[in-house]
Amino acid sequence: MIQEKTNTDSQTATNKNVPVIEIKDLYKSFGKNEVLKGINLSVNKGENLVILGRSGSGKSITIKCLVGLVVADKGEIKVFDTDITKIDTNELNEIRIRIGFLFQNAALYDSMSVRENLGFTLKRHVKGLSPKELELEIREVLENVGLADAIDKMPSELSGGMRKRIGLARTLILKPEIVLYDEPTTGLDTITSREISELLLDIQKKNKTTSIIITHDMACAKHTSDRLMILKDGVIHAEGSYEELEKSDDEWVRSFFS
């Protein structure tokens, strides 16, 4: 296993002793298929961690375990200093409200307009908002993702990049402290992928979010990461900055960058 020193920006360095996510010895199997074989990682407050790995390496399973969508077989998963493997459903739901999750397909409700999609999420979790307050929250988050004019559109009227942005808006409307991105640029053209990557950075800076980004897109990884981890055979095989891993002595690690 390669362990390489990480170079981070000043914000991350300031928060280096404030991990908001800590995973220790995480194991998960599906029948005889051992997917995770002892994952260990931590993410600092305000940091963007990118996780790379071949298909089936367990990247998405790792973050699904992190929010309890998949139950781990063994291990410790601390979020905001609470081990989510040892709490009940009500406590888990309180933590989930503080975490945003952007799925690959944006997961919008096709029968609802953009306004309705965002309003449904907000009303479900925030009680007592007046219609005016609800509208202001919706318009603000759409401004943040650059799609204020799409408020009355249906998902079928949106391009792939727009759907990603609306999915992100729905994630951000609850003002999460942690955001988990599962392949945020998959299926998008190069220019739109770059725009989404820029948006992820803007969100980190504006909202001071902590993020884990699962991606195959090396341009996205380079642009958004404070630190990279690469999964191989169910464990973290390499860790470091983009520049460090790109120059790694490990040929398999370098293959991601070629």
Automatic annotation (TrEMBL):
Coiled coil: none annotated. Keywords: ATP-binding, Nucleotide-binding, Transport. It holds the Pfam family ABC_tran. The keyword Nucleotide-binding applies. GO terms for molecular function: ATP binding; ATP hydrolysis activity. The keyword Cytoplasm does not apply. Residues 21-258 form the ABC transporter domain. SUPFAM superfamilies: P-loop containing nucleoside triphosphate hydrolases. This is ATP-binding cassette domain-containing protein. It comes from Flavobacterium gawalongense.
